[in-house]
Structures are given as C-alpha cells and as structure tokens.
Amino acid sequence: MTTATPQRLTLVGAGNMARGIATRALAGRHTVRILGRDTAKAEKLVADLAGTAPDADVRVGGEQDVAAADIVVLALPFEAAKAVAASHAAVLDGKTVVDITNPVDYAGWTGLTVPAGTSAAEEIAASAPGAHVVKAFNTTFAGTLAAGSLPDGVPLDLFLAGDDEEAKGQVARIGRDGGMHVIDAGPLARARELEGFQFLHMALQGSLGSNWMSGIKIVLP
Length: 221
Prior knowledge:
Structural class: alpha/beta
Low-confidence stretches: none
Strand content: 15-25%
CATH class: Alpha Beta
Number of helices: 10
Distance between the termini: 26 Å
Number of domains: 1
Strand order of the largest sheet: 3-2-1-4-5-6-7-8
Helix content: 40-55%
CATH topology: Rossmann fold
Radius of gyration: 16 Å
Shape: globular
C-alpha cells in the first residue's frame, strides 16, 4: 500500500474492466472517478466499489474529471476508445492515457482488426497525439483484477508499453500499489506483441476451461 500522495484516476467506461482496474487502484488507496455514458450503470459500479471499500475515494465523474485526472483510463472497446481519444485530444494533451484494448475480430476470431505493423495503442496515440499513451491491463481479465490475483493466489503480471517513462511510472505505481507484479515491456510499439499475445490467451479460454480467470505470467528462475 502506498503512503505517497494518491493519484487521481478517471476511468472512461463502467464495465467489468473498469470495475477490475478501479478495484486495484482503490486497493492502493488511489482516487477513482467513473465516467460512463450510462449514468445509472456508473452509479451502480461506484456503489459496489464503495461497498467493498467504505473508506475509498470513489465517485461518479464528469467531463471535468478527465481534465483533473493524473491518469485517464480508456476502459472501452477499441473503436470507442479511439473515438474518445480523438474527441478529447485537446484535454488529453500532456496527460497519461491508458489503453487497455484488444482489437479482436470477435465475429470470426480470426485475429486482430488493426493492420500489421501497428497496434490499437498506436492508433489511439495517433488520435490524441499530445497524450502519453501507455498500454496496460490488456493482458489481465476483469475477474482476476477484481480478485487481485490468480486463483492460486499468485500475483498478477501487469505488462506496460509506452514511450514516456514518467507516464509508465505512474501506471506502474497503480499496479504495484494494487499488489501486481509490473513488467516494463518497452516502447509503445511493443503493444503489438501484447495485443497478439492476449488474443491467443482469449482464444484459448474454451480449451483451457479457465472461465476467463487465467493469466499470462512470466516465471523467473
């Protein structure tokens, strides 16, 4: 748990991934604002989070919380995240923006929807060129984030990719304070491999029978 000044996270989205990431952030005593298109859904998520952590600083947010945030997490599907990045490019200028997306072809599960030689993270960065985009949380499933570990109690690995070291450090702190093992995967271009790796992880869920509670883990000697 951190004793330093809490970071202010604004999560754009109120789905399962927003729940999981908010849970890790609140475990580290950080401040969370939930901004959702469906206000009732955002209010329900905030109530649930506050119920499990009564002293947590978590509230429904508004557009002003995007501007006030230290870190903005786009907890949305790829195309929606890209659209939000583009429409908020001015306010995101200079901010740390977390892309959690996996641009998967869900219709046929044939691969990723972005062209070879790029990634969802890089396309989002191009949509908000002044933002410091960090790829993170895309290799962790929502249920494991909410639980705080894999089913056997092994800490979750949080892979980061980004071109700005300070921005990566901010996101790394959220992970570490929330009990995760942080791995710096390198520049933002490494998001290509992280997205491809997670596509395989997702595609294997049926054969693994892990009910979306497995994780990608680097085991050190």
